[in-house]
Amino acid sequence: MRKVTYKVGTDIALIKYWGKKDEVLRLPLNSSVALNLDGLTTTTTVEFDGSYNDQVMIDGGVVKGGEKDRIVEQIQRLRLISGVDLPFKMVSENTFPRATGLSSSASGMAALTFATAGALEMDLTQKQLSILARQASGSACRCVCGGVVEWHEGETSEDSYAETIFPAEYLDIVDVVVVVGSKQKIISSTEGMKRLYDHQFMKVRLEGVNQKISELKRLIKAKDIEGIGQLVEAEALEFHSMLLTSSPPIIAWLPETVAVMHKVQELRKQGLGAYFTINTGFNLHVLTTPSDAYTVETLLSKMEQVQQVMVSGVGDGPKELTEHLF
Ligand code: PMV
Predict the structure, then answer these.
(1) Buried (b) or exposed (e) across 296-316, using 16+ Cβ within 10 A?
(2) Does residue 13's CB lie within 6 angstroms of at least one atom of ligand 1?
(3) Across residues 229-241, what is the average pLDDT?
(4) Could you read off the pLDDT of 24-62 as tens digits, one per residue?
(5) How far apart are alpha carbons 117 and 307 in whole angstroms?
(6) Which atom belonging to ligand 1 lies closest to the Cα atom of 101?
(7) Per residue in 101-138, pLDDT tens?
(8) Is 138 in the pocket of ligand 1 (CB under 6 A)?
(9) How far is the C-alpha of 212 from the C-alpha of 233, rounded, in Å?
(10) Does ligand 1 come within 6 angstroms of the Cβ of 190?
(11) What is the Cα–Cα distance from 18 to 58, expressed in whole angstroms?
(12) CA 18 to ligand 1 centroid distance, Å
């Protein structure tokens, strides 16, 4: 059997996925749109051999418990399809802090799916890989392709997958990722979504989301970074209004997160193109233009609340590497 390694960029959702209509298949309540990122990546090596014992290592540590169970479950899904029933070893490394709201499970589960399918010598299409990745972690289905990616909500497992809607080189946009904390985020997405049932805002959100996606596509086509930024920031705040009013409430932000939000709005008043978005953690993504990126990065990294700043461009999708992690 082959030893296979893939490097996969994570993504940042411009229009968020939040809520499932099928828990087991991870079918989302709405379609979503994301940017694939080349600066925040997961590299994963997988090999199947009788001498292994389903070992999982991430970022230098042995992984056990629920996190390991989800990985084994995904490997098992692929083992069943391939008909190969050998134990495995998996080693994975991230270039960014894991479980802090920067979507390490999206790139992690996509890299795992690609490396496992390769190691099992399965011949799968990008669509099939997206459908398989989705079942491990919803947003992972978007990390199987590059550029601006849309995950079509779908009604069945076969039609809920992601594809590139604009290639990476189409949009000149920079993501300044701002780390204000490296502790684990307060709630996983899976748990957060469970607090959403019968949410008072959900009906309104679902009524408007397709229109919002169309508007975003129009702005991207026009390469209107200011329009994209304003829409994306408003979407992030709408998403957090649902978290704040979930039962029990999810207050994901730290005081440092709010300080960065204020700073971004101040930067705009100074004439810089800077717009934030944020997932369920406390770390933020600040979208900006290539010409403003250096100033935005410098000013944000000088803030006392900021621990680390990482700059990313738009990624063009998973890459197979010839150098392995073990
Ligand atoms: O794929 P999950 O289960 O990690 O959920 C991702 C949810 C958000 O990051 C908040 C939004 C998104 O679309 O990525």
Answers:
(1) bbebbeeeebbeebbbbbbbb
(2) yes
(3) 97
(4) 999 999 999 999 999 999 999 999 999 999 999 999 999
(5) 37
(6) 9
(7) 899 999 999 999 999 999 999 999 999 999 999 999 99
(8) yes
(9) 12
(10) yes
(11) 26
(12) 7
Residue closest by Cα to atom 5 of ligand 1: 189
**Residue keyed to tokens 């994975």:** 92
Q: Residue with the nearest Cα to atom 9 of ligand 1?
A: 279
Any ligand 1 atom below 6 A from CB of 9 = no
251: closest CA among 207, 227, 281, 218?
Answer: 281
Based on its alpha-carbon atoms, the radius of gyration of the chain, rounded to whole angstroms, reads 19
Q: Which amino acid is at 29?
A: L
